[in-house]
Amino acid sequence: MKITALEPQKHAAERVSLFIDGVFRMGLALELAHAAHLRVGETITESRLAELERKDRGWQARDAALHLLAVRPRSAAELTRRLRMKGYEPELAAEVVERMRELGMIDDAAFAGMLVRDRVRLRPQGTRRLQNELRAKGVDAEIARDAIRETMEGEGTDDLELALRAAQKWKPRAGEEPDRARRRLHGYLARRGFGGDAIREAMDQVLPRSGYDG
């Protein structure tokens, strides 16, 4: 078998089309073609072609991972899951993600800290909800706890202060009975992951039992 053409792909400048004996055989990353020193007229074996196909599959998985990370940061488990959803084999997805972790492109601790800072600054939530969100994204429980604790300390805040901020953004309905408003506020804060003590203290400051200005 001979390589009869290596043609740039029209819609993917980083890839070429490889033709064997005049017939299209595969698309291949340009960098892999260069690394393999492929030349038109060169004889090539089936085993070498299979190896190129395997390497290109890994290249495509890495490229897909980079595109996913360009949209937003992700945990290692979340990125692995998304690659598998795109049809990449479990072993290949795990291999690509592990390599990216080794290169420092994925860091679950940094990812968790960033997510918690975002929530603390923009969308106040309680520790419970933060833990659940991080766990849903595949972050290890211990890493999640450390990230929450360290970020809270770094931001100089805690569940009570965050619950108070969330409660202050919440508004009762016009003419609403105070007891009904307190029940709704309690439910709102509970859904945001705050514990009982923080909820009661925030409610007493924002919506005391004696009434409120509606």
Helix/sheet category: mainly alpha
Taking the sheet with the most strands, its summary is: 3 strands, antiparallel
Question: What are the secondary-structure elements, in order, as H or E?
Answer: EEEHHHHHHHHHH
Q: What separation lies between the terminal Cα atoms? A: 83 Å
Order of strands, main sheet, comes to 1-2-3
- The fraction of residues in strands falls at 5-15%
Kindly provide the name of the CATH class of the largest domain.
Mainly Alpha
CATH topology of the largest domain: Arc Repressor Mutant, subunit A
Supply the number of helical segments.
10
What can you tell me about this protein's structure?
- This protein has helices at 30-35, 46-71, 76-85, 90-102, 108-122, 127-136, 141-155, 159-169, 178-191, 196-206; strands spanning 3-9, 12-20, 23-29.
- It has 214 residues and is mainly α.
- It folds into 4 domains: 1-44; 54-106, Arc Repressor Mutant, subunit A; 108-155; 159-206, no CATH class.
- It has a 3-stranded antiparallel sheet.
- Helix 3 (76-85) packs antiparallel against helix 4, helix 5 crosses helix 7 (141-155) and helix 8 crosses helix 10.
- The chain is elongated, with a radius of gyration of 27 Å.
- The relative contact order is 0.08.
Write the layout of secondary structure elements.
Elements (H helix, E strand, L loop, with lengths): L2 E7 L2 E9 L2 E7 H6 L10 H26 L4 H10 L4 H13 L5 H15 L4 H10 L4 H15 L3 H11 L8 H14 L4 H11 L8
Antiparallel strand pairs: 1-2, 2-3
Brief overview:
With 214 residues, this protein is mainly alpha-helical.
